[in-house]
């Protein structure tokens, strides 16, 4: 691994970005720019290489703690990287994406298929069914105390959303909605009516497929 000081100035990450633009940089070089510097006895590229390895192995599960466990990455640098990842996700995922049905939702939730824990997500939509924002509401067992309508709809109201879609996964592989799933969905539909935000669908995802409340007519039944 080359030390950054041994690289000609014009080919160092920052200088390269200035001269050729961000697209000219490799993944390793982009991380080196984010990090800024390494530590004693560990060059910035060596630190970047360890972070890149973590990203390649399990990008969707990168956390602050995992980054901090890498030698040369303290809290400040870990926060910088997590902020860059989140900032990118927010813009990339919502840019020009229209959600017409459950298949569109599934394409945006591939990471949930093999999760060992339950994740509960929301997708806020504008009046033309364009995605405004995708959010993880909570991680853990689905129950009434956690899925509180006030918390769930707070961001949707802030987004001025016209509609909202809920998604959660079943680690067991069975997509059949439980009694709890159905009760929670009913509560959210009623809360949506109060705040003027339509619950467009609730999709249950697993490694074996998915279940759409909207496609199965359950939302319509609840709306009677």
Domain module tally: 2
Mean of all residue-level pLDDT scores? 84
Number of helices: 9
Tertiary shape: elongated
Widest sheet, order of strands: 2-1-3-4-5
The proportion of residues forming helix, as a percent range, comes to: 40-55%
In the CATH hierarchy, the architecture of the largest domain is: 3-Layer(aba) Sandwich
CATH topology of the largest domain: Cytidine Deaminase, domain 2
Instruction: Characterize the main sheet.
Output: 5 strands, mixed
The end-to-end span amounts to 66 Å
SSE string, helices as H and strands as E: HHHHHHEEHEHEEH
CATH class of the largest domain: Alpha Beta
Features:
224 residues; alpha+beta; five-stranded mixed beta sheet; 42% helix
Short description, anyone?
By secondary structure, the protein is of the alpha+beta class. Helices cover 42% and strands 16% of the residues.
Describe this structure in words.
This protein has 224 residues and is α+β, with helices and mostly antiparallel strands. The chain folds into 2 domains: 4-94; 102-222, Cytidine Deaminase, domain 2 (3-Layer(aba) Sandwich). 42% of the residues lie in helices and 16% in strands. It is built from 9 helices and 5 strands; from the N terminus they run H-H-H-H-H-H-E-E-H-E-H-E-E-H. The protein has helices at 13-20, 27-35, 44-58, 64-68, 75-94, 102-107, 149-158, 179-195, 218-222, and strands spanning 119-125, 131-139, 163-169, 198-206, 209-212. A 5-stranded mixed β-sheet has the order 2-1-3-4-5, sandwiched between helices. Strand 1 and strand 2 (131-139) form a beta hairpin. The termini are far apart. Residues 6-10 have low confidence and may be disordered.
